Amino acid sequence: MIKERLLTGDTLAIKAVTLVLVGLLFAQGGFAQSSYSKGRHVEPAFEGWRPNPDGTFNLMFGYMNENWEESPDMPVGDNNFFSPGDLDQGQPTHFLPRRNRFTFEVTVPSDWGERELVWTLNINGVERKAYGTLKADYLVDNMVIASETGSLGAGTSSPESRANIPPVVSVQGDNIRATTVAEPLNLETIVTDDGLPEPTDPVEEARQFAEFAGGALAVAFVTEENVMQRRLMSPPIKVTVQKVNGLYYSWNKWRGPGEVTFDKPQVKVWEDTRTSANSPWGSLWLPPPIPVDGVYDVNATFSEPGEYILWGRADDGGLYHDAWITVNVSE
Fold first, then answer.
1. 81 and 150 in contact (C-beta within 8 Å)?
2. Which strands sit side by side in the sheet containing 295-302, from one edge to the other?
3. What is the SS3 assignment for 214?
4. Among the listed residues 108, 127, 126, 128, the one whose alpha carbon sits nearest the alpha carbon of residue 117
């Protein structure tokens, strides 16, 4: 009887372990299916609106590409259009991975009223729409932008953030360029900024805290390696996406038939939250050095002939400024 009870207990234990393992297996399978490298759709997003001094309004759009690797292209037409009005409102036809916030703006007249501007996307066979409106709840200011992009925590503010003004971008040369396939095109851009918000410097912050808590001797134990290790192991502290503050400038393809490669590699403007990503949303990312003369220099190379639009963005962590140029590429 005792032996039978022991066997029964062992059997129950084995069954319990088996159920746990099966449950973990299915949970891992479910987790694996929650993110994708390719084959998924792109969700257009209405981010909000802001007024212009002349009485018109800007409707602000972005998108969520459900893929981590695939950057699909969809020309303006039946699968990428605005309505009512002109199908082409300057929207991208090349979609970078994952979340891209406040990517472009569409100006509507002062008498827009309660109408909606609808952006329709059909990528990888899935149609989605974003509805632009002037409803009061969608009014955007600089604090909203800084909060939504991760510079600030949700619902927080500071004198520094309120004083921040966007960087200013000035692309040198003509807005329309010409080059040939595989021939590098040099791009020089002057970016000026007010230095706010102050760039994130985790090593200096750690040294200041160590000096405050333990004096000069404690500071001696602070190294870049152990600070980065601590950042690597620390969980996010914001309920919104978390971003490292600091100025950068980045070129990306906006429209065009082929691939565009940039030398030097550009900081990612999309929310790549992976630890070591070259992205302000990666936990180990640090702002790149600002050129002494303020000129960001890069070469762009095109894989196929055709008309391209390149998009440049300067971002100080809280606010941004954009520029676009057209490049005609021949064989």
1. no
2. 168-171, 185-192, 295-302, 260-263
3. helix
4. 108
Check the CA dihedral 83-270-68-25 and report its sign: negative
Rounded to the nearest 10 degrees, the angle between the axes of helix 202-214 and helix 224-233 is 100
Angstrom distance (rounded) from CA 172 to CA 191 = 11
Count other C-beta atoms under 10 Å from residue 121's C-beta: 21
Give the position of tokens 């472009």: 104
Rounded Cα gap, residues 49 and 58, in angstroms: 5
Instruction: Outline where the chain has alpha helix (H).
Output: 2-32, 142-149, 159-163, 202-214, 216-219, 224-233
- Single-letter amino acid, residue 34: S
Strand partners, 48: 60
133-142, 194-203, 251-260: which has the minimum mean pLDDT?
Answer: 194-203
Over residues 122-180, the pLDDT tens digits come to 999 999 999 999 999 999 999 999 999 999 877 778 888 899 999 999 999 999 999 99
**DSSP notation for 110-134:** TT-TT--EEEEEEETTEEEEEEE--
Amino acid letter for position 296: Y
Non-local CB neighbours of 22 within 8 Å, separated by 6+ positions: none
User: What Å distances lie between residue 273 and 131, 242, 253, 297, CA to CA?
Assistant: 27, 8, 21, 26
CA dihedral 266, 267, 272, 274 (to 10 degrees): 100
Place of tokens 């630890």: 275
